[in-house]
Amino acid sequence: MGERVVDAAKAIRPYLPDMLGEDAERFDLLVSGLLAQAEADPDETALRLEQLLSMPPVTARWLERVLADDQLRPPELQQHPQLGRFECPGKDFVWYPRIVGQRAPICPTHGRPLRGAAS
Ligand SMILES: [Zn+2]
User: Fold this and answer.
1) Which residues pair with 29 in a beta bridge?
2) What are the pLDDT digits (tens) for 62-109?
């Protein structure tokens, strides 16, 4: 379960501005700060991410729906064919294209292009 929470936390980051508005930046710093410790201490990181994401009702609902999906897709994409999955080489940011040919963003923490493939 812990690893799934960590993966869900990577995937929630592109959605935070829509969910939290002006609080998104501060919240994202907390999320990315925890994700930076995920390899060193996966269990503690998962626990703290779960606590953090459970605080705002909007992210709590999102997390619940993503954890209920076997592929951990964002809720808005669960009813659609998957178009690919992209991840930061620093392993802290995951993004799914919503339309064919959509350009992947840059990781806001590392400023690096995401790796992955459109499927
Ligand atoms: Zn990154």
Assistant:
1) none
2) 999 999 999 999 999 999 888 999 999 999 999 999 998 899 999 999
* Ligand 1 midpoint to CA 95 (Å): 11
The residue ranges of DSSP E strands in the chain, in sequence order, are: 84-87, 94-95, 115-118
- Both structure tokens of 73: 């897709």
Q: Ligand 1 centroid vs 10 CA: distance in angstroms?
A: 9
Q: Please give all residues whose CB falls under 5 A of ion ligand 1, grouped by chain where several chains appear.
A: 88, 90, 92-93, 107, 109-110
What whole-number distance in Å separates Cα of residue 37 and Cα of residue 31? 10
Q: Do 60 and 54 contact (CB within 8 A), yes or no? A: yes
Q: Give the N- to C-terminal CA distance of the chain in Å, as an integer.
A: 26
